[in-house]
Specification:
179 residues, mainly beta, six-stranded parallel β-sheet, 11% helix
Amino acid sequence: MRRDLRPDWVKRAYLLYRSWYAEHFLRPQFDYLGDNGTYMKPWYVNVNGPNVRLGHCATVIGDVDKRVNIAVWGRGPGQGRITIGDYALITPGVRISASDSIEIGDNCMFASGAYITDSDWHGIYDRLDYIGSSSPVRVGTNVWLGDSAIVCKGVTIGDNSIIGAGSVVTSDIPADVIA
């Protein structure tokens, strides 16, 4: 690990700027954004659509080549929602896309490149069809999604479960397991 040789006043100025940026540009994109969050490189976090809620004490880490994308593309105006609980850890490259509903519990961790979706987003034959079939996704508390894990529509993941790196989850996962 490299030593940070910046003077203390430069570090403090950077942290103040990062906090100011999150408050003025990131907070308005959420329907609700909890207090005491840490947003590293918040200029690389994209939030689109209505009804996106992120709980207290979240840590969200963006990166120039792996942006965090949280998006609601509902079937109609004001439809669809994403709710993320308290103490979430969202690392670079995480994508969460909802057309109807995605609910994520407290204390969840999402490794780089994890993807959660509740919809097919288009039909197999008619790709101009706006949104294909969809089904709500529910992720319990204290769940860890490994690097590049994909959670598909209609899945419920139980509390305290771990989804391994590169997994594609197409059916329910019970609580307290490693999948």
